[in-house]
């Protein structure tokens, strides 16, 4: 259904583009989502959850009734009452509509992870929400909503980061403002506490607003946790509360983490090396002293540098290269092709209210396997600034959804350089254009084995069929993508796997049968829903959902 709709709805805008252009296109989808997408996550029901803080006063989405049933009238008190407005919405991709959702406590600068059944586990926030645990179980009928757990976090978690762990449905929550610990959720018992992490004390810059908040977390395929904060990083055994490795400091000054606000990805994991080589990448951030300089109305130029480092094996060195320009508050998303999209952000200043200037309007594309110096290209510019409190997520139809942006503590639309941004856009990569349709695998269907009604078990084979108008290219790849929870320039739990294809048979009528091997373990791919994409010589199909699970 979605595949068919995509062709009808979205091919229209592509026909008039310059031939040979690889810069992509922008689409305006909605003039207002009603709510700032400070946080965003794609569910396996092809909806996108967006939410803001709840204490920013009136949003752009007025409700007829409060959640307790009391009517919202036009009197002055009601018009100013935060409870008469939505602060979270669900966006339905196929209908291009939003519906309001109910949040009970403040989610300002919070964190999240998907569990194995596709439920979003969401943690922390501010004030009433700082120790709260919330769940959102997505549905296809528009009737699901937020649920708040009876159990609480053991410490305040404001600007913390989450990572889904290999253990079944266990999530680690790391850090937060003035919180130098980590803990696990869901809670196994009411007295389960938190654990000190001295690395967070060591990387904390008191004069610069922390510069180690929202640390970058990546699960290595050996089951240990990579943690990057400020400029430093460790490999951490969270079971034993032990630092296994301290990596070299990333070269150069400045900071990569909030309010420095650079971004990071774990580069695609590949079956060709049994998923054993794990390489991380960190891009952008703020200059030394940038946060304090904003107090004097000085906005220092952001960092242009990116570092890549292999975190497995015994030799660890940051390999540095420069983006086409300085960037902070930027999102990094891994595309189905294995390339990295760097989108949103600013060129000067730091994270925080009104602390950034000069919006970065042009996305960058990074091709990790190209030769050094040939990896970056500059894509088509948007006209809409997406700075503090904006976010971006990859959609199953190949587009990138871009939303949010609000450097003010209230919804502010006039007399400011960067007004609150409620417009919803999609960036459309060049390979989604009509001229690539003859190369694009269509009608992708996943068939589980006879006993696997719910998903594919680790290491087992599953069948994928698809249609191709012409003979497959020499390189047909099968990639699986874990949809992230995105906020404040980081995409928590994002990872892309290149899976092993055991056989590829082309039958009559362009039908292709493939046998694909599931990832070997939960260390490589924590159990849950992944977007499976068939990539034919660099042209991706629409993605279909596959669930990888324990035996």
TrEMBL record:
Residues 452-547 form the Galactose oxidase-like Early set domain. It comes from Pyrus ussuriensis x Pyrus communis. This is Galactose oxidase-like. Residues 1-20 form the signal peptide. Residues 38-431 form the Glyoxal oxidase N-terminal domain. Keywords: Signal. InterPro entries: Gal_Oxase/kelch_b-propeller (IPR011043), Gal_Oxidase_central_sf (IPR037293), Glyoxal_oxidase_N (IPR009880), GO-like_E_set (IPR015202), Ig-like_fold (IPR013783), Ig_E-set (IPR014756).
């Amino acid at each position: 259904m979605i595949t068919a709709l995509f062709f009808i709805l979205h091919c229209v805008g592509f026909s008039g583009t310059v031939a040979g252009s690889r810069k992509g296109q922008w689409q305006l989808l909605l003039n207002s989502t009603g709510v700032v997408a400070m946080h965003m996550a794609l569910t396996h029901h092809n909806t996108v959850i967006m939410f803001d803080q709840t204490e920013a006063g009136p949003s752009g989405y007025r409700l007829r009734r409060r959640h307790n049933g009391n009517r919202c009238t036009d009197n002055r008190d009601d018009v100013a009452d935060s409870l008469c407005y939505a602060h979270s919405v669900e966006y339905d991709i196929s209908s291009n509509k939003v519906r309001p959702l109910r949040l009970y406590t403040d989610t300002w600068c919070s964190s999240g992870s998907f569990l194995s059944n596709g439920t979003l586990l969401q943690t922390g926030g501010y004030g009433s929400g700082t120790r709260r645990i919330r769940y959102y179980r997505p549905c296809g009928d528009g009737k699901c909503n937020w649920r708040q757990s009876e159990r609480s976090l053991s410490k305040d978690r404001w600007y913390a980061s989450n990572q889904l762990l290999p253990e079944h449905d266990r999530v680690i929550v790391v850090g937060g403002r003035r919180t130098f610990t980590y803990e696990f959720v869901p809670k196994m018992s009411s007295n389960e506490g938190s654990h000190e992490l001295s690395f967070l004390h060591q990387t904390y810059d008191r004069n610069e607003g922390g510069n180690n908040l929202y640390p970058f977390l990546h699960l290595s395929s050996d089951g240990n946790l990579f943690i990057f904060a400020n400029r430093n990083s460790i490999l951490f055994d969270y079971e034993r509360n032990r630092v296994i490795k301290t990596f070299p400091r990333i070269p150069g000054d400045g900071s990569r983490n909030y309010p420095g606000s650079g971004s990071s990805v774990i580069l695609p994991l590949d079956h060709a090396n049994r998923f054993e080589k794990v390489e991380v990448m960190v891009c952008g951030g703020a200059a030394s002293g940038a946060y304090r300089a904003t107090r004097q109305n000085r906005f220092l130029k952001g960092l242009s540098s990116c570092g890549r480092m292999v975190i497995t094996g015994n030799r660890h060195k940051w390999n540095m290269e420069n983006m086409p320009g300085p960037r902070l508050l930027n999102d990094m998303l891994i595309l189905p092709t294995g390339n990295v999209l760097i989108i949103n952000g600013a060129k000067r200043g730091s994270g925080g209210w009104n602390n950034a200037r000069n919006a970065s309007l042009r996305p960058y594309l990074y091709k990790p396997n190209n030769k050094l110096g040939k990896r970056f290209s500059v894509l088509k510019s948007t006209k809409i600034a997406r700075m503090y409190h904006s976010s971006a997520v990859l959609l199953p139809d190949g587009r990138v959804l871009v939303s949010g942006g609000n450097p003010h503590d209230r919804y502010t639309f006039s007399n400011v350089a960067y007004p609150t941004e409620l417009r919803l856009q999609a960036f459309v990569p060049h390979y989604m254009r009509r001229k690539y349709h003859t190369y694009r695998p269509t009608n992708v269907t996943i068939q589980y084995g006879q006993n696997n009604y719910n998903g594919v078990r680790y290491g087992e084979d599953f069948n994928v069929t698809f249609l191709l108008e012409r003979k497959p290219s020499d390189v047909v790849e099968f990639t699986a993508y874990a949809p992230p929870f995105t906020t404040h320039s980081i995409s928590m739990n994002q990872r892309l796997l290149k899976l092993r294809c055991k056989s590829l048979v082309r039958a009559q009528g362009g039908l292709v049968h493939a046998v694909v091997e599931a990832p070997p373990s939960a260390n490589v791919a924590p159990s849950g829903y992944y977007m499976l994409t068939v990539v034919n010589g660099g042209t991706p199909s629409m993605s279909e959902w596959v669930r990888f699970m324990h035996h």
